[in-house]
Amino acid sequence: MPVHKVLVVGGGITGSVLSLALAQRGAEVDLVEISPQWFGVGHGITLQGNALKALRSVGVLDRVLHRAVPFDHMRLRHADGGLITDLPTPRTGGADLPATAGALRSDLQDALCDAVHAHGVRVRLGLTVAGLDQWPGHVDVTFTDGTSGRYDLVAGADGINSAMRELIGITARPSPVGMSIFRVVGERPAEMDCAEVYYGGPRYKAGYSPISADRCYAYLLDENLDTSLIGPRAPLELLRERGAGYRGSWGKIIASLPEDTAVDHRWIETVLIDGPWHRGRTVVVGDAAHACPPLIAQGAAMCLEDAVLLAELATGSDPLERALEHFMSRRLPRVRMVLRNSLQLAEWEIHPGTPGADPARIMSETLQSLTAAA
């Protein structure tokens, strides 16, 4: 029997798309989000074609693309801004979709929030799961506000530091990759028409992507700095100091940032449950099951593919146990490949000059392989 009543834990991009896809297929969905507020926050996001395909499947793509910036190529530059090469990007979502789109995370999340409400998902904020009891035909859930519920399926989409993962006895934990990232949103220069990456400077690399008509998302990949700097309000002066030596449009963007600019700084971490992501009738998906460094910009796409496929299989004709096995057989090899190649790129960034290093080949082969259906 297909599932009818589902609990989704986590209201980010993965949980929102999963809730929406389930509701559209006739499931009764509760979505719980630990934050007391539910709206789009954060910096920019790169959505490659397979991510756009997932958004189209749940009916929000047109709204996202109304404000996002689509493009079909990227440029590699020297640290001084000189052009290395202009590369076409494979259309991983199919020939009828852009290869890539840059968007504000807030625009994407706002579109998903509105669609989730419009499709009758019951959204509860400021709470999460305190405990659960698995039974052959259902899961009994106790929430942190003392209420409870019974569900056919519980899906944890609560991010890389997932509490649901630990709650169901999966021992995988995030580990640092060995690099950190500064992120900012700034004014989009008139000449910016695609993502660009700067190599050969004082840090691992710098780059940016257009995310709206007048805004861009810029970043700097650096070594792991002191943990006291981690958070959404790192010093702008530190970013400028660490990024000194990158010129061209990147240098102009950073120099023009207002002094009150929010600078997000994080250590990049990774996690992979290299085995079943489910225990009984509970499953974890998205970054809770797999999170990779942003070297191929496939993190969001992998999460969205999880959500769409899980909704399709869980509401299909197969028993849930078989549906989850089928889900794993389709998702784990694809996610494992993306994570492996992303970590290889990170390793080459951290140790430049490694014999045999060929980032362009790895990126091209990865994206080309993702043109196959998820």
Structure keywords:
29% strand; eight-stranded mixed beta sheet; globular; 374 residues; six-stranded mixed beta sheet; FAD/NAD(P)-binding domain
Spell out the blueprint of helices and strands.
Layout: E1 5-9, H1 13-24, E2 28-33, E3 44-48, H2 49-57, H3 61-67, E4 69-71, E5 73-78, E6 83-88, E7 100-104, H4 105-118, E8 122-125, E9 129-134, E10 139-143, E11 148-151, E12 153-156, H5 163-167, E13 175-187, E14 195-199, E15 205-210, E16 215-222, H6 236-242, H7 248-255, E17 264-272, E18 278-279, E19 282-284, E20 290-291, H8 299-314, H9 320-350, H10 359-369
Parallel strand pairs: 1-2, 1-12, 2-8, 5-14, 12-19
Antiparallel strand pairs: 3-7, 4-7, 5-6, 9-10, 10-11, 13-16, 13-17, 14-15, 15-16, 17-20, 18-19
Helix pairs in contact: 1-4, 1-8, 2-8, 8-9, 9-10
Notes on the structure:
This protein has ten helices and 20 strands. With 374 residues, it is α+β, with helices and mostly antiparallel strands. The protein has a domain of 233 residues: FAD/NAD(P)-binding domain (3-Layer(bba) Sandwich). Helix 1 packs parallel to helix 4 and helix 1 runs parallel beside helix 8. The model has no long low-confidence stretch (mean pLDDT 95).
